[in-house]
Amino acid sequence: MNNKTKAPSFLGLIDENKYLSLEDFAGKYLVIYFYPKDKTSGCTIESQDFRDYLKKFKLKNCAIIGVSRDSIKSHKSFIEKESLNFPLISDPNEEMCNAYAVMKEKSMYGRKYMGIERSTFLIDPEGSIIREWRGVKVPGHVEEVYQALCATD
Fold first, then answer.
1. What are the phi and psi torsion angles at 87 (to 5°)?
2. Region 15-43: what's the mean pLDDT?
3. Which residue among 109, 120, 150, 152 is least crowded, i.e. fewest CB within 10 A of its CB?
4. Is position 43 annotated as part of the catalytic site?
5. What is the CA radius of gyration of the chain?
6. Which pTM was predicted?
7. Domains of the chain by range and CATH?
């Protein structure tokens, strides 16, 4: 059962001139969650849930990163407002979104557009994806990700 997929490498902007890469997390588990937009209801709840679970994830040698197309400025405001305790990557050019194939056609009020499909990836210390969730429904999701991490022991 060793059909692990190598996680796509990334260089994600978290602050002016400050980047995170997949290599920064070598030797650790990593949760990367992609979400549509800062300060919207589902994204806020999901981010708060990851915030509230961070200590548990850290005890399992696991870091958390959120990713959306919002600007650094928007992320800073969101982090401050919600007291988020992990970095958010700004991906306005959708490079990371495309690498992880989370851009999907969506429809609102009959108008079609491309947007981020709420998705989460659990990556092992060797940099392979061990579990992915697509089209995530927020309630109970973070607990499910945590349980999947615990199952790796």
1. -75, 150
2. 96
3. 109
4. yes
5. 15
6. 0.95
7. 27-150 (3.40.30.10)
pLDDT in tens, 90-140: 999 999 999 999 999 988 899 999 999 999 999 999 999 999 999 999 999
Average of per-residue pLDDT across 50-54: 98
Strand partners, 134: 119
Six-digit token string for 110: 């009959």
How far, in Å, CA of 151 to CA of 73, rounded? 37
In one-letter notation, the amino acid at residue 19 is Y
CB burial of residue 111 (10 Å; 0-12, 13-18, 19+):
exposed
Tokens 């602050």 locate to 15
Of residues 43, 62, 97, 150, which has the active-site annotation?
Answer: 43
